[in-house]
Amino acid sequence: MNKEETGMKTDIQIAQEAEMKHIREVAEGAGIAEDELEFYGKYKAKLSDELWERIKDREDGKLVLVTAINPTPAGEGKTTISVGLGQAFAKLGKKSVIALREPSLGPCFGIKGGAAGGGNAQVVPMEDLNLHFTGDFHAITSANNLLAAMLDNHIKQGNALQIDTNQIVWKRCMDMNDRVLRNIVVGLGRPVDGVVREDHFIISVASEIMAILCLADNMKDLKERLSRIIVAYNYAGEPWKTQKWAREVMRKLYNAGPDGYCGDEDQGQMSAWYVISAMGLYAVCPGTDQYVIGSPLFPKMTIHFENGKKLVIEAKNNASDCPYIQSAKLNGKAFTRTWLTFDELTGGGVLRYEMGKQPNKNWGIKPEDRPFSVSKHTGLKKEKTVFQTGGQWKKATDVRADASIVYGVNDRPGMTFEQRVNSWRDRGYRTHFMTGIAWGEYQDYFLGQWDGKKNHLREGQVTQAGDTIWHGHMVPYIVPSREFIEYMKQKHVKRVIDAGIDAIYMEEPEFWARAGYSDAFKEEWQAYYGFPWRAQHESPENTYLANKLKYHLYYRALDEVFTFAKAYGKSKGMDVRCYVPTHSLVNYASWQIVSPEASLASLSCVDGYIAQVWTGTSREATFYNGEVRERVFENAFLEYGSMCSMTAPTGRKMFFLTDPIEDRQKDWLDYKLNYQATFTAQLLYPTIADYEVMPWPDRIYEGLYRVAGIDCRDRIPRHYSTQMQVMINTLNDMPVSADTVSGSHGIGVLMSNSLMFQRFPNHDGYDDPRFSNFYGQTLPLVKRGIPTEIVHIENTGYPETWKELKVLVMSYSNMKPQEPAYHQYIARWVKNGGVLVYCGKDIDPYQSVLEWWNTGKYRYSAPAQHLFKLLGMEQNPKDGSYRCGKGTVYVIREEPKDFVMKKEGDKTYFNIIKEAYEKVAGKLTEKNNFYLERGPYVIAAVMDESVSDEPLKIEGCYIDLFDPELPVITEKNVKPGEQAFLYDVTKLTDTTQPMVLCGASRIQGEVSKPDSYLFSVKSPANTTNVSRVYLPWQPQEVKVTSADGKALLGTYEWDEKSHTCQLKFENDPQGVIVELK
Fold this sequence. Notes:
By secondary structure, the protein is α/β, with parallel strands linked by helices. 28% of the residues lie in helices and 23% in strands.
């Protein structure tokens, strides 16, 4: 029977019929003054801080704690008993106060019902108390969810903190039990709706903000506690911050005081965190075998493993004020990684830290030293991939790299520069800026609109015939005068930084060798040299002086523009980065262009480069074995090598560029084959993992080019766009690797910026056709499968340059040393055991130009004479080998160009290289291929014109990334003249987790559960996605939907041997959601 049937009143009837006193009267009975109340209507009030200050020193009263009620399953009745006891004490004349927790709507509308007592032993107003009371729960919920929204917005806007989206521990909350919201997926829908990730709801009273509110002593304490909340984990390359905060958490939260953790063990996990963290370790991502290094608490700890081994962790100088790791050694060897594997831990040994009071900001900061991140698909790696574009965002060009480099500051019809930038930002891209430093759409400058001077066209680069060299209509190549530099600062740099862009690229500082006859150049000559201009065609001396000046002018221009950019950015509170996109030294010398190149790395205002190895530059025909033809892969390999070595010792950032098409009109099949060649070449340099994935996507996706075998033009074929996007998306995940290309390492060929100084014009009948003096030293090695290293003479002062070098090949037939110090570095290396191979007759006309080796204290007729003297040799040694200290010098009195311009002209040269190498490094391996394993990727190239015509056979379980169908294969035969790019399925580190291995769209977010896998992808419109997904179970259902929930057509095919599923569907830049069950 219920209460209505017995005539008993219900709780709510009793509450509603009760005659309530004003809360002022209730407080007065407890000795609380009206001024010490904060009223919420007539019947509710909060107590002020002033009341506490008034009574805090009084003697404590008696406490009766009601903790449990039996025998009800949920323990209902504690509040009723508490209220009844309070009423009973009052009846007995005792001054009593009841302290109850505020009811949560979850239990109120769940099993337990209200929490205001029952019958006549209840608190009124009961409805207010059980529903919203004073609104504190709403405030807690809003604060909690504001932080959650800020996190997701930060990730969507570029994730500058590099938050790992699978390691966000901050959950949303609501004051209600709603089980369907406990585990959810957020970010579905349009791009503006955020990044897809798994999220969770908890009840508001379980939030950390609720706990902090309860524990805080005052407002200041509340703010301090809120500021220390851990909401997510990231890998920002700043391990000293991890050391600081790990120590802070252990110190402040794990203590025996009233503000320490109060026994909420969460099945022991909180204590486990403390124990492991006290040893200086923490399993941030339990799905991997990595333990991240924090800050050890004790000077010595020993871990005993069940395999009988033990790991001793020592922390020298450890103290409460020394939380920072200065250096580390594992088993006596220097250790810079910020993580250890489970096998390394259980293998035992000694891990020794040196601790200090100040952070060592150079320890553990390299990308390869960072731990694994399960969010590799969410763009955490800052600006790993970029592309340049002159247009606004379009569906057809939504490339999905990390950053869009917006080209040119000029407004377009109907769209300002700022609007163009924002069109990319609104789609989730970071935005950078690029323009030319040697040319550009600067008509307002050339025609005098900027400063009122109408003769700036005179600053164009002019040939001997009086012709201006044009880059485009009314766009001359420029002699960068001081006025032009000021124009670039005020008109371009300022506007870019004002638009909030913090990365500026000034591309292609190029001065043509055949130029140097304009009035503007003559004026710069007078100012630089202090004597009147001399025509460069009249003598080698004049040519050398002219090219040194061209070199200097762009060095000056970039120095001043970038220095201004950094200073102006700083005035705006911005850290502006400055990069130089440039062709390789190999290409500039070949094309007869002068550029500052390597010397720019010495400028503090230059943060890095883009290696612009265009398909067109790599197609420059070369001599080899007496034949002139294109050697695209080999050329690209040398171009990327020269750019890599240019920055390797300096620490400057380097992006590698590849171009899926080229400026010259070819057909789509031609573009595809040569793109594969250059793409493969760049991947064979495993220390570089930042890329410009394509330039000018509009021309790639919307341009009309010939179709092979058909007399027509069409847009990019679907199969090629699919393959191209698969390749591009691998670059988003391409790791830096310590692995090396197959072959005999340690042979280098010396280069200098002065290669560009003596390319044009020819003098005294001496010629270097197709830059053959360079290719004569390199192609005979590359063609035999020797991973030849390019060594920049400008970097010989860096010890890192010599670290792995065994044999150095050099010639002054096509370049000259700019400083005598370079010879001192080379001589020291030889005397310490290096082997030098010097090629050339020293007969070119530039041997006698007026330079350091024949002026002042030096009187040498050729620069090599200075080097030979430092080596203790005759100044003009003949062919042969010479012992120098612990090293050896081989002299070949033959011009290097003859090694390739003559059929079989390289035999003597190569035999000497082989003898030199085997003298210090063991057997020199000859082969027709390069092979590299880079994480899960396999990269291979087989060369024609080599020591063998045999294909390279690769066996295993692979996905062919150059095939747009992404087939699973067990054998790949790579023929001479071909390349291969494979994904090794056997390299998966965790076979229990689903994963998109490769595909023609970029993963935006993913959620994995025991029986399902959901991910969202984006890619340009009008393209087809083919993906290969690893699954630990065979899917029974695949759903493909649009961002707004509409079902899309998709197909899938299961491959049992690789446990992968091939998916196909049409791409959409708004997003496609795939769910496999």
